[in-house]
Design a protein that fits this description.
The protein is 39% helix and 15% strand. The protein is α/β, with parallel strands linked by helices. Helix 3 runs parallel beside helix 4, helix 5 packs parallel to helix 8 and helix 8 packs parallel to helix 10. The protein is globular and about 45 Å long.
């Protein structure tokens, strides 16, 4: 499939956030959507920054959090014009042949989104990222379509390892150098959306995620990371917090990596689909410098860089 950019647009950046309490920061290693109040506030600050640049943010939400008593922050996100779509009910991988499990997950997610927020999910974000997308999972494709979703964002290639997500117990990160990471922006390919045989349409994710960057590639003290997660995970941190397991210059390099990617997609007149997490930035970028830097750099370009949503991408698709 092709992307047809609007006539005045040089390139498009479909920035999305997976809104969840990440398993990698959890004492129980369970991922869920019951967002702690501090992270709720941080997420609303992301909206503040985006709105100052006339940008709409796209959040993919683990919907079991909608069973909480107070979801006012989610209602505020929608009322302010931002977008929420499904990240499944309990962060179950789409790479499954368990038809009953996946059907239950998607039904519960859709029901909660409709009942609690009055919205219907148009795009499904696949948890974890899958190197070959759903090509090897026809049952999952069928279930997704049967649950009223035509568009999925599940395919992910780490440009350095050509694998899917790696979690905190991986050893491969220790063998990567700064030069490897600097080259990552050049190695990233902006794979366009494509259609599976079932008719389901895939919108691939591009480049390293913040979770890869801060907690894997630049995790210099994995033992401290595991100890923090076990003792203090899912608890609020101070505004001057610095993650003790991550290299001190990781944020500066993260910002530069994303600016380099923006330069690339601008030159190629393409679509870039980066995936960030409010929780990861809450821990590693307490002042929200990364989002400000990306948006400021985008408006500095001579031709228009459209920071859009994946719902906007759907409207740009051409067979």
């Amino acid at each position: 499939m092709n992307i047809e950019l609007p006539g005045d647009v040089q390139c498009a950046v479909a920035l999305s956030y997976d809104l969840e309490m990440c398993a990698g920061y959890s004492p129980s290693m369970v991922n869920h959507g019951h967002i702690i109040p501090d992270l709720q506030k941080y997420t609303l600050t992301l909206c503040d920054i985006a709105e100052s640049y006339d940008v709409i943010l796209h959040f993919f939400y683990v919907t079991n959090g909608l069973e909480a008593e107070n979801i006012d922050y989610l209602k505020e996100i929608i009322n302010r014009g931002h977008v929420i779509d499904s990240h499944t009910y309990s962060h179950v991988s789409l790479a499954t042949d368990d038809e009953e499990l996946l059907d239950s997950e998607l039904k519960k997610a859709n029901q909660l989104l409709a009942e609690k927020l009055g919205i219907k999910s148009k795009v499904l974000r696949g948890p974890g990222g899958i190197i070959n997308g759903l090509n090897d999972y026809p049952v999952a494709q069928k279930v997704i379509l049967e649950n009223g979703v035509r568009y999925v964002s599940s395919a992910y290639k780490d440009p350095l390892t050509h694998n899917g997500f790696h979690y905190i117990n991986s050893d491969y990160k220790r063998s990567l150098t700064d030069k490897d990471l600097q080259n990552a922006a050049q190695l990233t390919t902006f794979d366009p959306p494509y259609r599976y045989q079932s008719g389901l349409i895939e919108i691939p994710m591009h480049g390293l995620t913040d979770r890869n960057w801060f907690d894997m590639h630049y995790c210099i003290r994995p033992d401290e990371f595991n100890e923090w997660r076990r003792v203090k995970g899912h608890q609020p941190v101070a505004t001057d917090w610095c993650a003790p397991w991550t290299a001190p210059d990781a944020l500066d390099k993260w910002i530069q990596y994303n600016l380099d990617l923006l330069d690339r997609v601008y030159q190629e007149k393409a679509l870039w689909v980066p995936v960030w997490h409010p929780y990861t930035h809450y821990l590693h970028d307490r002042q929200n410098i990364a989002l400000k830097s990306l948006l400021e750099f985008s408006v500095s370009k001579p031709k228009k860089v459209w920071i859009c949503t994946l719902r906007d991408v759907i409207n740009m698709l051409r067979s």
